[in-house]
Amino acid sequence: MAESTATSVIIPAFNEAPVIGEVVTALKTAASWHEIIVVDDGSTDGTSARAREAGATVVTHPYNKGNGAAVKTGLRRASGNFILISDGDGQHAALDGARLVEMLGDYDLVVGARSGASQATTGRRIGNQILNRLATYLSGRPIPDLTSGLRAARREHLLEFIHLLPNGFSTPTTTTLSFIKAGYNVAFEPAEASAREGQSKIRLAQDGVKFLLILLRVITLFSPLRIFVPIAAIPFLLGTGYMTWTLLWYVRVTNSSVLLIVLGVIVFLIGLVSEQIAALRFERRR
To answer: pTM (2 decimals)?
Structure first.
């Protein structure tokens, strides 16, 4: 079991002055942490001052870089063996964070999985469900909450994937998929999320597309055939079906059917090469 005294808490925050002090105080009450680091991502509302008053170590960005950039800054600054990442908007319960850290003895990453009822608006819930199901297919592992901002992990493993983390809002997506595809032990522990203070920084349409692209990018890096096989199957099956139809009705094979079949084979072969490259990358890492 991981100890809270060996755990660094990282809180990325952007214009969270009304609530950041309460977040830090609640965490300090919940457990004896190695350190609590608030990364002020270019706030203009006094977030840094409120965090310092509550007893946190504050690292500031001179301008807004994004949630992921703040997490990376916190990881580089942290000195604990374990990391707890929590949002600075007051949605997550401090005791839930302490409970996730306790599970790190058996797991390398523990994600606080929110229930559907606790996830903001109906549109956000629907969007998250779509991402969760797509991620479940691509990763081959049930993922109940891909985008939760509450998670605990071993610092050495997070640093292993720090170069993959985007500067925007897709850090949870990237870390979850990276840990799963790398074969680390990942657990999803139920955790409730209360209504956040203020307005969410995530824009559903724009950031939803980014989440999807990053999801596909990470799976392509770790398990390319999960993407290439379905893409290759579409033209191959169309070409085969069209060829069969023309043979039965016209006793000939058209150029279109041959091109479709060849396209499917080429895409599949590209997927095989990508799979080998992914395997070689892991061999070199070990």
So the answer is: 0.80
